[in-house]
Amino acid sequence: MNLPRARVRRPWRSAAEISALLIAVVVAFPLYWMVLSAFRPAGEIESSEPRPWTLSPSLDSFRRVFEQQEFGRYFLNSLLVASAVVVASALIAFLAATAVTRFRFRFRTTLLIMFLVAQMVPVEALTIPLFFLMRDFGQLNTLGSLILPHIAFSLPFAIWMLRGFVKAVPEALEEAAYIDGASRARFLWRILFPLVFPGLVATSVFSFISAWNDFLFAKSFIISDTSQSTLPMALLVFYKPDDPDWGGVMAASTVMTIPVLIFFVLVQRRLVSGLGGAVKD
Amino acid sequence: MPGTAPRPGGRSGAPWLYLAPALVVLGGLLVYPIYQLGLISFLEYTQAQVSGGEPTTFQGFGNYAELFGDGEFWRVLLATVVFAAACVVSTLAVGCALAVLLTRVRAVPRLALMLAALGAWATPAVTGSTVWLLLFDPDFGPVNRMLGLGDHSWTYGRYSAFLLVLLEVVWCSFPFVMVTVYAGIRAVPAEVLEAAALDGASQWRIWRSVLAPMLRPILVVVTIQSVIWDFKVFTQIYVMTNGGGIAGQNLVLNVYAYQKAFASSQYSLGSAIGVVMLLILLAVTLVYLRLLRRQGEEL
Known about the structure:
A: MetI-like fold, 11 helices, globular, disordered N terminus, B: mainly alpha, MetI-like fold, two-stranded antiparallel sheet, transport (chain A), Carbohydrate ABC transporter permease (chain A)
C-alpha cells in the first residue's frame, strides 16, 4: 500500500521499521539456533548455559549424521520424490488448467467446484485406504507410494492456481498462432507453456513442500525397507524422546531445510506475484 | 473470460483429452480412496482381516456407535476444534498485522522480515518441530534461560504442550497469510487510498472501510486455507508431544486416527474418525463456496 508519504509521520515510521527488524530477528531465531546447534562441538549443546554463539564450530554432528545413517541415500530419495511430484503435477495441472480456462464444455463449472472441494479433502484421513491400495498394487516400501499420492493431492490446488495464469494470456495471441498455421500442440507447448511458466514455478513451491515435508505417508507406507526412507524418517532416528542426540537432529534438520530454503529464495519474487494473481482474479 | 472463440478442429473432445491425466490421477488416488475410507468405516477391519485372512463383516454403523460412545473421542474432537481455532485466529492476526507493517516500512526492513518469514515458511514441519523442542528444552533450551523458568517442562502439562505446538504452527504458517495479504494490499490502487486519506479518513478508518472490503476475497481464502491446515495438524503434534502427549492428552483427530489404525490395528475405527474429519471439512468447504457465490465470483 503506497500511502501518501507525508501522512506517515517520521517517528511512526522509525518505530515501524524497528519493530519490523525486531520481528524479523525473532522469526529467524529458530533457524539460526538450528544451524548454530548443528555446528556446535560435542558437549556444547548439552550445556545448561546455552550461549547464542559458538567459538569452535565443528562438523562432527554432520559427520555423525552422514555416517550413522544412509543419510545421503535418504536425501536422494527425498529429492527424487519431490522432483517427480513437482514435474508430474506441473505438467498435468497445466493441461487441466488449459482445458478449464480455454474451452467451454458441459460440466466445466461442476468440475471446477470438484477441484475446489478436492483441495479441502484432509489427505491424512486417506492414509488408511491408500495404505491398502499401495499394498494391493505392491507399492508399499517403494518411492512410488509416496510420489503417486502427492501428485494427486497437489493437483487440485495447482489447477486452481494456474487457472489465473492461463486466463491472463490473451485470446488474440492464440488466434494469431492458429492463423499463422500453428497446430494446437505447438501453441500449447511453444507459446502457452513458456508464458505460464512463472505461474508453474509459484505453484510448484506448494507441491515441492508437501512432498519434501511428507512425514505421515513415509511413516505409514515405508514400513520395512529402510533403504526407501526419506529425510523426515531419518531425522527422527536421532530424535529419541528420552535421550535425543540434539547435535545430530539439528545437523539433519539443517541438511533437510537448506534445499527448501534455496528453492524459496529462487522463486521468492514469483511466489509473491503468483499468490497475488491467484487470489485477485 | 474463458475462451469462447472457435478453435481449429474444436471438437468437444479436446478439453477432455487435456483433462484426462488429471482425472485419472484424481480418480484413482483421491476419489477411490475416499470411497474405500467410507467402506472400511462400515466394516469390521482389524489385524485379523488384514493379514489373518478372516472374512470382513459388515458392521453397519457399529464402528460409529463405538466411536461416539467413547468419551475419549469427544475429548479429542473438542481439543481439535479449540486448538485449530486458536491456531487460525493467532495465525491470521499475526499474518495480517505483519502484512500491514510491511506496507509501512522501507525496503531494507521489509526485505529482512520477508526473508525471515520465507525461512519459517520453508522449514519442513518435522525440522520445525524438533527445533522448537530444542528451543523450549527444559535442560538445554535458551527460552527457559531467558525467561528464568529453570527446568520447567513445556511438554509435561496438557495446555503448555498445546501452547508450544501452537507457537510452532503459527510460526510456520503466518508467512503464507502475510505474503498473500501483503500481495493483496499492494494490488489495491494507490489512488483509492489517497482519495480516502485526502477525505480525512484515519488509518483505522481506511483499513476498516476501504482495505478490508477490498481484501475480503483474499481474507476468505487465507482463512479457509488456515482452517483446513490447522484442523489436520499431524506432524507437529506427533513429533512435539511424542505421538499425542502423556496418556494421549495432546491428541488431535488426525493423530488419533493414525494411532487407532496403525498403532492398534483398528483400521475401521481409524477410518470412521477419518470420515468424521472429512465431513467437518466438507461443511467448511460448503460455507466457503457460499461465500464465493455471494461475492459473485465467476468460476
